[in-house]
Amino acid sequence: MSKQIGDVILNVQNISLSFGGVKALSDISFDVREHEIRAIIGPNGAGKSSMLNCINGVYTPQQGSITFRGQTFSHMDSHQVAVMGVARTFQNLALFKGMSVLDNIMTGRNLRMKSNLLLQSIRFGPAQREEFEHRRKVEEIIDFLEIQAYRKTPVGQLPYGLQKRVDLGRALALEPQVLLLDEPMAGMNVEEKQDMCRFILDVNDEFGTTVVLIEHDMGVVMDISDRVVVLDYGKKIGDGTPDEVRNNPEVISAYLGTGH
Amino acid sequence: MGFFLETLLGGLMAGMLYSLVALGFVLIFKASGVFNFAQGAMVLFAALAMARFSEWLNASGLGNLWLVNLIAFAMAAGVMFCVAWVIERLVLRQLVNQEGTTLLMATLGITYFLEGLGQSLFGSDIYKIDIGMPKEPVMAFESTFPGGILINQEDLIAALIAACLVALLSLFFQKTSTGRALRAVADDHQAAQSIGIPLNRIWVIVWCVAGVVALVAGMIWAANSVCNFLWPQWLCVLCQW
Amino acid sequence: MNTTFPRLLQQHASQRPGFAALREKEYGIWQTLNWADLFIMVGQMTHVFARDGMKRGDHVIVVGANRPRLSAAMLAVQTLGAIPVPLYQDAVGTEYVFPINNAEVRFAVVENQEQVDKLQEIQADCPTLTRIYYDNPRGLRNYPAQALCSLDTLLQEGAALAVKSPQFVDQQIKAAQADDVAAMFFTSGTTGNAKGVVHTHRSLLDRAKAGADFDKLTSREEVLAYLPPAWIGQNIFSYAQWLCCGYVVNCPESTETVTTDLKEIGPTYYFAPPRVFEGLLTQVMIRMEDASAPKRGIFNYFMALARKVGPSRMDGESIGAWNSLMYGLGNLLVYGPLRNNLGMSRVRVAYTAGEAIGPDLFSFYRSIGINLKQLYGSTETAVFVCLQPDNQAYADTVGVPCDGVEIKVAENGEILVKSAGLLKGYYKNPEATAEVLSADGWYKTNDAGFIDSRGHLKIIDRVKDVGRIQGGANDGAMFAPKYVENKLKFFPFIKEAVAYGDGRDRVCVMVNIDFDAVGNWAERRNLPYAGYTDLAQKPEVYQLMLECVEKVNADLSVDTLLAGSQISRFLVLHKELDADDGELTRTNKVRRGFIAEKYAVLVHALYEGMQQQFIETAVKFEDGRSGSVSATLTLSDAKVFNAVERAA
């Protein structure tokens, strides 16, 4: 299986982020190439989610900038980031609890809707036709994630593993170029993890979506990622292919503690 | 027994009137998590606008009652849209992601502002709105209970309008994609933004809809009694229950 | 019937082209395929299969859930005179090795990537398998193309070939005879290797028609095809009878959506094994316990009424004016909504078979107006041997011999069947064939039973399993393990049971609790538990099991034949018996011999009178990896009742 990994699509430069006195990220720089699967790993509290939040516009870094497809930003808001083609999932899920699975994923199609909000308020004419098109796309995603049985179930009632799938589905509905996944396999058992891996690989393979994922399961990281960034206490301590990173002494000591 | 039912029905329908105002609260709270203290003021502002517009229209010679009311309603709605847009631009946008209490205080400020603006724009006298609602009460169930039960036709129509409005809004929220986006925003701002829902535009829409609801509420209240700037305070207090 | 499956398809396509033949739910909507389009699709597939070298007499395996294109593939294979062999889609890859090599299979038609992966894993052991056609392309984009071909591509190529030789399909259809082999089904067999049951067009269609006539099936029936195609029942209900009557077969979206799809389709003709009916009832009961008091009150009142008069009403007997009125009210408030919730509002005929069904369960469904009946048959008899007529649906029989079937009972109690629907033989296994098919056409069913006073057949157990107690208080008494196991399984709390006693001095039993039912029971008593193994070891659960066992004993004590089969000791297993671990067959029948070996230490402990026994068992996870589960099990004694003396 040969995959064409392209040029740098996302470049993170010298990002530093502090909350009050706590330095969450110190001078982090790394790049992400198009079509690759980039993993961000590190012990708890290393700043991985904060990094993703910076890319996503949830946090504004005090220093540094992010370049996406040649355009450099020091500050973006989440909405603009989504418009640019970056979608994300959340570590603790941020699903719209009161809505059904179908509705949750349909909200993800919002960006792709061409008729404006006003026309959409009354389901008439072009807005109605569009609704059908989007419904079809969403059904494809539901089929892809194998959650047909739960279309109409309110997401609050679903077990955790399925909620995570819906989260992924909603992000996929944006048809993003870059997918940011924050611990997509947290709390899953072996079979659920295998399914999730399969979905991520299929998305990357079929649609060429670039994937940046935060993950704790070393097996998964070594298996599916093309390159890995390692963070520890807000600093970057490793960057390279899974094998390179695995043999990096700093990485080893960060995970196992010094003296090993 | 007959008297009990009469009082019961009367109370229920009065409740419907208050629910019209409460609808506006619920809308804004559901869609933006803001407790809108200014809802009462919006009802007043809208009603005042409509009252004055219909007066001006009448004075300028337009005879037909329905037409006058329709145009006045449309104009007042337009005014409310402007109000919504201005509030979003000048107040809400600056206070994104702030705490609930901050936003509440902001709406308090909006209340005073709207009251004052209303009075200076439209005057502080007592105004009437006449939308042609029948004033005579109706006696129902005359065969079952001696003398029948007194039902106020106005109240009945108001209750019907309120019910329709609720049904319409439910349909809007459940079946349209804008409605869906609104529900998404109400649930989780962060997530909604992350999937590209334009928060600002959504808020304008919500306040516009709330404005129209306030207008309908004000119109019915005014038709029921009179339109007076003393409303906002006690309306707010009552609706908070 | 003197015709073939492809010929029937051709008839429907020419006489009723626009009528719906198959439906599939895709992307949330039901997509319909009519007879004309189906015939065209089958034709296209036939062309490509022929071009790829499929010949008359070739065996082709078909693996997947029910999908219109897989049914079309089977018809295409039969058009060429080749033989489709459906296999269980849930089986592990190694289970396919024997059938493929036994039938020297060269072609396979499968549903998706999962099946393709399984076949490629065993490729080394199956040198004859050279070509795999698949329906759903997801995940298969980057697989090397030589051996694989997608049905999408196949249909396109077929369309081109069809234009070039339009007479081809017709010629093939004409060349087929009713006595040609139509399909082969491998019986999983409770012991030993699987055997390929060979059926001809005539045998399958004969039985299909007999069943259709018995229940007056029309072309307007709606059937949901949710059982595995490898099982002969599925083939009869959704393939043979489908082509015979021309009704509509609906394919559900996925295994998880079956219950919703059932409600959406509202089938008129339905089959499910007893455990499905049991599962549905358990769900209803569990949800009812959560309902508010007034609802529960109404439910209980009307269910009591239904229990009293429902079955008689269904049998056409009069139940009195007041009861009729109340039943009508009950229909509105309880039975109608209940039927709707189960998806059975339009069911005209529902069958169950495969194992015994609890009398309470059976009458529950009949009492709320669902025409549930039992039937008797097997893979070798193309299903329909005995059927229950509409107004004679008794809980403890399996029906009367239907059209074209003769039954006699041998001296040892074994049931013998003669019918046009019998198998042609076991594939490449003349010894096995000779064992079951006598020279004058009688088939040995291996079941022991008798015909009761009403003319209905009653099954006791598998002939070779019926044993005798040796030694002890009941020396010489008949022991029928399945009979005992069924009685235990009639309780919703017991999912599976294995009984031993042949050649022993008493009967001992190992049971599996039903996790849903017992879990619910435990929760209502505020009994916390941490999973199946933990729940199964709780003393309160043991007490519950003891009550069930003793009720069975009480029941058995009044049975003339089987009073000696009462249970003396039992234990609750720490893990569910599973087909993946070889303990059950793919149709969920217990493999007593295998279990006796695997759990030998437990059986020994039971008979030695020990109070506790540690056991460690190997388990196989769904992805093929192995693990182990262990526990220390408590062994319990149960009270045995004296056989009640019956008046002569």
Description:
The complex is a heterotrimer of chains A (260), B (241) and C (648). Chain A has 260 residues and is an alpha/beta fold. Chain A is built from ten helices and ten strands. In chain A, helix 3 runs parallel beside helix 6 (160-173) and helix 5 crosses helix 6. The longest helix of chain A has 19 residues, at 126-144. Chain A is globular and about 60 Å long. The mean pLDDT of chain A is 86. In chain B, strands 1-2 form a two-stranded antiparallel sheet. Chain B is globular and about 65 Å long. Chain B has helices at 2-32, 39-59, 65-92, 100-122, 153-175, 177-187, 189-194, 199-224, 231-239, and strands spanning 137-140, 149-152. The relative contact order of chain B is 0.22. Residues 236-241 of chain B have low confidence and may be disordered. In chain B, helix 2 (39-59) runs antiparallel to helix 3. With 241 residues, chain B is mainly α. Chain C has 648 residues and is α/β, with parallel strands linked by helices. Chain C is 38% helix and 22% strand. Chain C contains 21 helices and 28 strands. In chain C, strand 17 and strand 18 (414-419) form a beta hairpin. The two termini of chain C are 49 Å apart. The relative contact order of chain C is 0.08.
- Largest beta sheet: strand ordering of chain C: 4-3-5-6-7
- Taking all Cα atoms into account, the compactness measure Rg of chain C is 26 Å
User: Beta-strand level of the residues of chain C, as a percent range?
Assistant: 15-25%
Summarize the main sheet of chain B. 2 strands, antiparallel
Please tally the helical runs of chain C, counting DSSP H or I stretches of 4 or more residues. Answer: 21
Oligomer: heterotrimer
Shape of chain B: globular
Count of strand segments of chain B: 2
Helix/sheet category of chain C: alpha/beta
Show unreliable segments of chain C: none
Helix content of chain B: over 70%
Structural class estimated from helices and strands of chain B: mainly alpha
Mean pLDDT of chain C, to the nearest integer, reads 89
The span between the termini of chain C is 49 Å
Rg of chain B to the nearest angstrom? 19 Å
Strand segment tally of chain C: 28
SSE string of chain B: HHHHEEHHHHH
